[in-house]
Write a structure and sequence with these properties.
binds NADPH dihydro-nicotinamide-adenine-dinucleotide phosphate, Quinone Oxidoreductase, Chain A, domain 1, globular, 6-stranded parallel beta sheet, 321 residues, alpha/beta, Rossmann fold, 27% strand
C-alpha cells in the first residue's frame, strides 16, 4: 500500500486526508516512482477547492522527485533506479506515484531530490515566462509580483540572467529583502505600485509584467506597461481576474495580454529537456539559488496549504512522504 493525500470532496485545507491507497501501477508509457519529495504548488489549492474542476477521488500534487522503481510498457529512455523529477503529473502527494514519462526528466548527479522537486514545476514556469511567453531581451525592464514566492524568487533570478532590470513586489519587508537578495533592482509593496513603476521608468512603464497574483493586481499591472508591453497573467493567488474588455488593451497602448500555463510549454521531449536542462545547469553552476522555504511531512499537507494561502511562506514548500 502507498501513503497518499487524497480528497473525496472539494473545500478548504481540512478536506485533505492522509490515507492508504493501493500501490499505483505503471501503465503504458509510465514510470512507477518512489517519491522522495513532492512539491506544493498554488495550483494544488485550486484543485483542492474546486477552482479548477477535478475528478474525485483525487490524490493531490503535480510535482515531485524520486527514484524509478519500475517502468511500464513502451517506456524508452528511463529504467529502474533512475532519479527523476516531474511536473504537471497528478498524484504526487504520495509515497509512490505513476508518472507519464512525457512529464519526467532525469535528475543529474549533484542535484538533490529536494532541489529537483523544487524547480520541476516552478522553475520551468519561470523559464517558460522569461524565455517563451515574454522572452526577455538584454536591457528590458520587467515587473515581477510576489517576488519572494516559489515562482517569484526563481523568476527574478532568471530575469536577471537574461539582462533585465527587475522591479518586484512583496507584501512584507522580509519578503522584499528576499527579492532583493535574489537580484531584484527595485522592490516595493503593492500599494500604488503602478505609480512607483512609472516613476522608476521615467513615465514609460515596463516591457512586461509577470503577474501570478491576479484579481488584486491586474488593473495596476496593465497600467504599469509601456506601449506594446506584455501582460503575462499566469495565476490567481488573490482570486480570478474578471472578464476584460479588449478595448482596454488598445487604450493602454496596444498591449499584449496572455494567460499561459506550463502544460502548453512542455509539449515535446525537446522542450521539456531544454527547460529542465537549463535549470539544472544553472543550479549546478551556482547561478540559480533554490530557496526551500519549508519542508513538511506528508501528514501536514493541510498545514502547508493553509500557510501558502495565508501568505505566510517564501520560496518552495515540499512534502516528504
Ligand atoms: P507563491 O509561493 O508565490 O505564493 C503565493 C504568493 O502570492 C503569496 O506568498 C503572496 O506573496 C502572493 N499573494 C498576493 N495576494 C495574495 C492573496 N490574496 N492570497 C494569497 N497569496 C497572495 O505560490 P507559487 O509560487 O506556487 O505560485 C505563484 C503563482 O503562480 C500562483 O498564482 C500560481 O497559480 C501560479 N503558477 C502558474 C503556473 C502556470 O503554468 N501558469 C505554474 C506555477 C504557478 P506576497 O505576500 O508577497 O504578496
Amino acid at each position: 500500500m502507498a501513503k497518499a493525500v487524497q480528497i473525496t470532496e472539494t473545500g478548504g485545507p481540512e478536506v485533505l486526508r492522509v490515507t492508504e491507497v493501493p500501490d499505483p501501477q505503471a501503465g503504458p508509457g509510465e514510470l512507477l516512482v518512489d517519491v522522495a519529495a513532492a512539491g506544493v504548488n498554488y495550483v494544488d489549492t485550486y484543485h483542492r477547492d474546486g477552482t479548477y474542476p477535478v475528478q474525485l477521488p483525487l490524490v493531490l500534487g503535480v510535482e515531485g522527485a524520486g527514484t524509478v522503481r519500475a517502468v511500464g510498457a513502451d517506456v524508452t529512455g528511463f529504467a529502474a533506479g533512475d532519479r527523476v523529477a516531474w511536473a504537471m503529473a497528478p498524484g504526487s502527494y504520495a509515497s509512490v506515484a505513476a508518472i507519464p514519462q512525457t512529464h519526467a526528466v532525469k535528475v543529474p548527479e549533484g542535484v538533490g531530490d529536494d532541489v529537483a522537486a523544487a524547480i520541476a514545476l516552478q522553475g520551468m514556469t519561470a523559464h517558460m515566462l522569461t524565455r517563451s511567453v515574454y522572452p526577455i531581451a538584454d536591457g528590458d525592464t520587467v515587473l515581477v509580483h510576489a517576488a519572494a514566492g516559489g515562482v517569484g524568487l526563481l523568476l527574478v533570478q532568471l530575469a536577471k540572467t537574461r539582462g533585465a532590470r527587475v522591479l518586484a513586489t512583496g507584501s512584507t519587508e522580509q519578503k522584499r529583502e528576499l527579492a532583493r537578495g535574489a537580484g531584484a533592482d527595485e522592490v516595493f509593496g503593492y500599494e500604488g505600485f503602478a505609480d512607483r513603476v512609472k516613476e522608476l521608468t521615467d513615465g514609460a512603464g515596463v516591457h512586461a509584467v509577470y503577474d501570478g497574483v491576479g484579481a488584486t493586481t491586474f488593473d495596476d499591472s496593465l497600467a504599469s506597461l509601456r506601449v506594446r508591453g506584455t501582460m503575462a497573467l499566469f495565476g490567481a493567488a488573490s482570486g480570478p481576474v474578471p472578464p476584460v474588455d479588449p478595448q482596454r488593451l488598445n487604450r493602454g497602448g496596444s498591449l499584449y495580454l496572455t494567460r499561459p500555463t506550463l502544460a502548453h510549454f512542455m509539449t515535446t521531449r525537446e522542450e521539456l529537456d531544454w527547460r529542465a536542462g537549463e535549470l539544472f545547469e544553472a543550479v549546478a553552476a551556482g547561478s540559480l539559488n533554490v530557496r526551500i522555504g519549508h519542508t513538511y511531512p506528508l501528514d501536514e499537507a493541510a498545514q502547508a496549504h493553509a500557510d501558502l494561502q495565508g501568505r505566510k511562506t517564501t520560496g518552495k514548500l515540499l512534502l516528504i512522504p
